[in-house]
Amino acid sequence: MLASCREGWANVLLEAMACGTPVVASDVGGTAEVVGSPAAGVLMPSATPANIVEGVRRLCAHYPDHAATRAYAENFGWDETIQGQIRLFQQAAQGVAAHAPVLRH
Q1: Residues linked to residue 2 through DSSP beta bridges, in sequence order
Q2: How far, in Å, CA of 91 to CA of 83, rounded?
Q3: Are residues 61 and 41 in contact, defined by beta-carbon separation less than 8 angstroms?
Q4: CB 44 within 8 A of CB 51
């Protein structure tokens, strides 16, 4: 359970998932990027008591297989993260090149 009002990239979520434990977390900051599959757990709109209860109920009603949760977390290893960064930089470079002015001599 991560009932935050603000978050960046909460590694604690990935640590739990890497152990096969799905999470319930408030949908703030980068949390939606981490909890992006039913195998990962449940996002709640905000950290109110009612949303926390509903998030736990939803998780219990559709509890994912521990192996599926762990497999999902493995998509966030260093190799995958580096490849994602490379793709992002390539897309940015292509966008810059596409909009670069044509120089005439």
Answers
A1: 25
A2: 12
A3: no
A4: yes
The CA distance from 41 to 60, in Å, is: 10
Coil, helix or strand at residue 52: helix
Helices 11-18 and 66-73 pack at an angle, to 10 degrees, of 130
- Which residue in 1, 25, 17, 33 sits closest to 66, CA to CA? 17
* pLDDT tens figures, 18-41: 999 999 999 999 999 999 999 999
Residue 103 has pLDDT above 70, yes or no: no
* Residue reference for tokens 């408030």: 26
- Claim: this prediction has a pTM higher than 0.85: no
CATH topology of domain 11-77: Rossmann fold (3.40.50)
Distance between CA atoms of 3 and 52, rounded to whole angstroms? Answer: 8
